[in-house]
Design goal:
Elements lengths: L1 E5 L2 E6 L5 E4 L5 E6 L4 H24 L13 E4 L2 E9 L4 E4 L3 E6 L4 H31 L5 E5 L6 E4 L4 E5 L7 H13 L8 H10 L3 H9 L5
Parallel strand pairs: 2-4, 6-8, 9-11
Antiparallel strand pairs: 1-2, 3-4, 5-6, 7-8, 10-11
Helix pairs in contact: 2-3, 3-5
Bound molecules: zinc ion.
């Protein structure tokens, strides 16, 4: 197999009869051509497809990213490990409420950023009530105390702990996960107050208070942070 660049595209020479051109969802282009086909011929082929390539790539660029919500009726929002349908209606206010069956959003203007903000604020309000409750439960259980709890969006971690300052951060995204997972993260961070590293003692300490912590950790790993 041999690769060359023709008109800025990577072309792979293979034992095939015809030229193949594929565009992948990530807009990558794959071209393969017969081993001895003249370069001029491949150039002409690519030129003849140029308009089509541009068109397909443009369409791909405009597609919503799979993880990004559009906030339209019928879409699903996660909350405490379950998915609930979203219903979007026009009205005289901007708000969202949850009736234990679905999310109902009322908006004055159909603006993506606005809808995103309404949903995130709702999640934040819920986290602000729930997370401290779980924290208190485990702080009492372990006989520990913290100076500060903050809830914020984090890209790569579910939580963090500054054991010297006794600060704990929890990822807002946790509010979308099942409560047993939130409890595990809370206990994990509280356990860091005593054991800053992920030592064997650290996990023994956790296990004392949560014998099924491995299952909860596994369940959490099935959810991606995005
Ligand atoms: Zn840790």
């Amino acid at each position: 197999m041999k690769k060359e660049i023709i008109l800025g595209y990577e072309v792979e020479r293979k034992k095939i009869k015809n030229i193949n051109l594929r565009i992948y969802p990530d807009r990558r282009i794959y071209i393969s051509a017969p081993l001895n086909l003249h370069t001029d011929y491949i150039e002409n082929f690519i030129r003849s497809k140029k308009g089509w390539i541009d068109e397909v790539q443009k369409r791909l660029d405009n597609l919503p990213k799979s993880t990004e919500l559009q906030y339209v009726t019928g879409e699903k929002l996660s909350y405490l490990g379950r998915l609930y349908e979203l219903e979007v209606n026009n009205g005289n206010e901007n708000r969202i409420y949850f009736n234990n069956e679905k999310f109902i959003m009322i908006i004055k203007e159909d603006i993506h950023e606005l809808k995103k903000k309404i949903v995130e604020k709702w999640y934040f309000e819920k986290a602000k009530v729930l997370f401290p409750k779980i924290m208190d439960k485990y702080l009492n259980l372990l006989g520990e105390r913290t100076e500060h709890l903050s809830i914020k969006k984090m890209k790569t971690r579910w939580g963090s702990c500054n054991h010297r300052k006794k600060y704990i951060n929890l990822n807002l995204e946790l509010v979308k996960k099942p409560i047993p997972c939130i409890e595990y993260v809370v206990l994990h961070e509280i356990a860091h107050l005593r054991h800053p590293n992920h030592s064997r003692d650290f996990y023994h300490h956790i296990e004392k208070y949560m014998p099924d912590y491995r299952q909860r950790e596994k369940l959490l790993k099935e959810y991606r942070i995005y």
